[in-house]
Each structure stands twice: as structure tokens, then as C-alpha cells.
Amino acid sequence: MLEKSEKKLNILLLGKRHAVSGNHKSGGVIIPFEQMLVDLRDFPVNQTIIDNNFRNYKSKIHAYLSVLSGIMANIRKSDLVFVNGSNEIVHQYGILLCVLNLFFRRPVFYRLLGGNQVGYIESRPWPVRKLVLWALDRSTALLFETKRSVKAFSYLRSKTIWYPNVRVKMPLTTDLAYQKRFVFLGHVKTEKGVDVLLRAINQISQTNDDYAFDIYGPEVDYQSPESLRDVYSKHYKGAIGPEKVNETLASYDVLLMPTLYKNEGYPGVIVEAFNAGLPVMATPLGGIPEMVDSECGWLIEEGSVDDLVKTILSIDEEKYLLLRKESRKRFDAYDSVKVLENVFEEMRSATNREAH
Fold it and tell me: What is the pTM of this model?
């Protein structure tokens, strides 16, 4: 850990905070940003935080104007600007930051979460595409969740850095023995492969009564197929808060993630599974193949109930123990404090260069 006695950096942080009211889902860009704010308390940093979650304002217009005024009011007294968000945040605020930087010359770091920055930019209208690339090229550093995005944008003048989805390391409490307990934890919707999972559960349950399957997470416009309503009712356990995720996963043996979403970045639930020492069974979409391989889990065919069933039934107890140990080792790459130490060094170096 870096010494707090060092000269403090004044960092202006822009990102989405948890919604202060209402039953709104937290995930995506919110949890990583909140985690970073907590972790930064142990670094020599003064934080000025600007929340761009429109749910915490009277309207979207009110949110946008408040964010703009907050940036303009605080950039002069900040050493560095750190922007955390999804792809849209660059064209929302990137142009303003570039213009302000002409006057104040502050390093600008973008942390872009998700796994499809290239596809997103290519899908924008020509003027937006050019403006986004212009803003990215004139930033100090681009921090991407996936290694493929780091490579894809390495041609820009900005420094490209790998900053994966991270979590705080927790004590390992799970039993080592394989007990055929499987869990899905995430947004419950068709795009996440829930229908595929229900069909697999139904098929396995007809011939095997010693497998346990549970599904956790907020329902997002989801209605199970009529033929699987009873299966869903039996196995769906409701949503849980972020503070219960590690404890819940520790009660199972394998995380199931048969997602159909092609633009997955580094799903936080896979990081959580590694933290709990769970092997992962997932589809090879987006950034998932950078996280999961045959040493810490299984990659299954997208949308295939048969492949999911076959893979679940083929788990060997002896090999399972090796997968568990490797899964826990994999978490080191996603340890929030270790990763942030490297990012902080990059931020400090950037401010030192700008000062000279």
C-alpha cells in the first residue's frame, strides 16, 4: 500500500453513483465506480466526486447541467480528471473536457467498462464517431475492462491500460468437496440465458435428483416460458444485495452463466465466483474467454441446452478440486487494491509529467 504521507493528488471523479431512492438495479458501471471510491480512501488522494446518475436528479436535463457545472467549477483545483462509465460517457462529456483542457491542461483518464467499444463507435453516425475518437485520442489514458479493447485502441496517442472489473478479496470459506450445487446470479432476463438454463435444469431433474440449482437476481422484464413456469418458481430465489453476493456464492460449487449477450465485458459475477473459489461454466462471448478457460471452468456452446446439460453431468470430482484451486488463484488479477495501486501510479506519473 502506498504511504498516505505522500503529497495528495486532487482527483475530480465523474461516474454513476448508487440511486438514492427507488428500486433501481445497481451493476454495470455503478459497482466498479463505488468500489474504486472506497479503495481510494487508502491512497493519498483528495476526492471530488460528480455523480452523473440521472436517477439522483430531478430530470435528465437537470443531471446534465449539474454535471457540466460541477466539472467547470472543479477542474481548476484538480490535478487530474477521472471519468468512469460506459461508452456513451465519452460523447456526453468528452468534448467539454477536451476544450477545458486547452486552458487548464489537466490529465484526463477514461475508464470504459464493457467489452464492445469498437462496435459501439463503428455504429455511431459519422460526426459522433469522429468526435468520440478525437476525444479519446486527446485524453491522457484509456482504461479498458478487456484486453482486446486495450489492443484495439493502442494506435491512439493516449496510453491504453488494462483495468478489469475488480472486487475486494474475501476469506475463502467454501468447502472443497464437490456437492453438485449450481448457481446463477445476475440480471434475470432472456438475454442472460435464463431460458436455456431452465431447460437444462428441467432436463437434468427428470433423471437426476441429486443436483441442486438456484437462481438469484433482479427480474428485468422477464417472464419464463409457460412450459417452464413450475421450474422457474421452484429454483428462483429472488434478488440479493451486493453485500450478500460472496456469502451466497460460497454456498455453491459452480457458477452458471449461459449468457447470450454478445457484448459482455468482464462480468462482475465471474470475478465474485473466483473470489469465492468457484469454477465457472459460461458461454465464450465478449470478454469471457479472457477470464474463463479449461483450467478454471468450462466454456459451453452459446444457446445450447444439450451442451450445458452434458457439461454439468460430466464434471469429475477430482478435476473439480483442481478447478477450484485455480479459480481462487485467478482472483489475484481482479483484486481491487492491487489493481488500483497500478492505476494510481499511472495517475501520479501523469500529473508529474504535466507539472513539468
Answer: 0.89
